[in-house]
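The freezer alarm interrupted the setup, so I double-checked each line after restarting. Inputs confirmed:
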Amino acid sequence: MSRQSWGRGALVSLVLAAFAGGSAAHAQSALDKIVQSKTLRCGVQLDYPPAGFRNQKNEPDGYDVAYCKDMAKALGATAQIIETPSSERIPALVSNRIDVLIASASITTQRALTVAFSQPYVSYTNVVLTRNDTGVEKFDDMKGRAIGGVTGTTTEQELKSLYGAWKDAKGSYTGYGSEAESYLALTQGKIDGIILGNASAGALVRSGQFPTLVIKGEAPTPADLCGIAVRKDDRDLLSWVRVFVWSQVRTGRYKELYSQYFGGSEPPSLSVPGVDF
Amino acid sequence: MFNYTFYWSIVWEKFPELLQGARITLEVTILSMIFGTALALPLSLWRRAREGVGHAFATGWVELARNTPALFQVYMVYFGLGSLHIHLPSYFAMVAALTFNNAGYLAETFRGGLNSVPPQQLSAARSLGMSAFSAYAYVVFPQVFQVVFFPYVNQLNWALLNSSLGMIIGLRELTGATQAAQSESFRTFEFFIVAACIYYVMAKAIETLAQLASWRLFGR
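Predicted 3D structure, all chains:
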């Protein structure tokens, strides 16, 4: 596979070079374009509060939105927030509608085959969300019950592997189309529990729209470390983004943004002990 | 043109899951068409009656089924009934919602077909001593089916494509399986292209089978 695509890649570059001629010896990199056009286009998921949502003035708001604005400021550009629902995140990036994806995308080896990730810029832990009448007090109490999640999320994959380990004949798992349906199903009693990021769970309970939902302890899943994604070829942009993420933590801005949107005085660590990213 | 290398190997790894999804898509489609047809027959007769409870009921059904989005109908069956503490599993909720939708459209299709059969045929059948049921079953509807055959196949295709809405209420049919696979790997283009091809093949297969059935039944 690699040899063939190298060959094809070489052929394509030859043809491109022939067309481009001598005038554009150096193609403009993604970073150059952002700096020159003074616009940074960020893909953000706006159905995932408090990381991304629309505030009462119907403007994009949230941790990811604020992160994008900081990034634009550091580049001397204006931030352009482009809403990318879960399944449109990658097409938006690949088809060049956005420059960076700041959309709580969990870093996995499988996904890294498709896009290039920065080191983690935010970290979530998973908690158990249930109704106050289910009697579920901790994660293991969900055994033998109907549980649910959102189709295709990393949280779902982790929940399903834990669920599989229970070898539970009585329980069932249902993967819904989006967060909204899973909350509704939980509220109505179709399912008795879901696991989701502590930040969204907290925002959900605080919103007051779901008075019967309560958080009951943490789920035994590893920390959900999310990265900023760029196109695989935009290496200059990736290395700049890595510096930016580092700088956010170093200057204390990470802590500030984290407590503003997620609460708490001490933000979670953005690294896995004992290993570099 | 964008710079993107397609990775098909990831798709082949997940292909059995997509096929499993396609099987559920077909099941839901076929079941909802069978139930939808069974309901559409009496609905179409009630629609033709000028008045009465049956007419009002059938008109209400057709109006709702045809003038609201299928997505809304799916939501109502799953979450609407859920708020009344009636909990249908995703599979049955999807079959029920699609049946409701199909019955509404097919009732109107059959009504058009019924109008094309001269009313004297029914009178003649009844005067030969056939019951109303046999007259419709053996004389009128066989002719109706011939007239409505292609609109019927249209509806079958429509049901196949509408079944993709099952994904939002937790049914892992073809679209649900595709969504899960693309989200795990971020290979959105590959998975959506393959899913579109599978839908196309299924729709084409239905069309071909219908064409064969049409030759066999009606000789054309």
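Quick read of the result. Chain B touches chain A at residues 2-5, 7, 9-10, 79, 82-83, 85, 87, 90, 167-170, 172, 176, 179-189 (CB under 8 Å).
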